[in-house]
Amino acid sequence: QVQVVESGGGLVQFGGSLRLSCAASGSIFSIATMGWYRQAPGKQRELVAAITRGGTTNYADSVKGRFTISRDNAKNTVYLQMNSLKPEDTAVYYCSVRAYSDLWRDYWGQGTQVTVSS
Hints:
Elements: E1 2-7, E2 10-13, E3 18-26, E4 30-39, E5 46-51, E6 57-59, E7 67-72, E8 77-82, E9 91-100, E10 104-108, E11 112-117
Parallel strand pairs: 2-11
Antiparallel strand pairs: 1-3, 3-8, 4-5, 4-9, 5-6, 7-8, 9-10, 9-11
């Protein structure tokens, strides 16, 4: 079994910063892509940023230049540094990990709330 746990969400003012962390644990043989998604009320879940094991990154246009994704392969952990936050960044942020346990599959965390006040 694989567990994915996010942390670091909270309430921040417009223009502020937050850092999200996500750690995968359990019976993991290998991890490929790790990513962050978000879902705002009444909207579909969307990709925010993703990073491959080799460090190649991909960002949503709406966060380019403001958010930075990084990972520590030794700790099976992925981070999302969020700067210059806007009210439209308010959402529940979910971590996704593509890992091999008994087979390759995507594992999800429970989500962490990020609220940006104006």
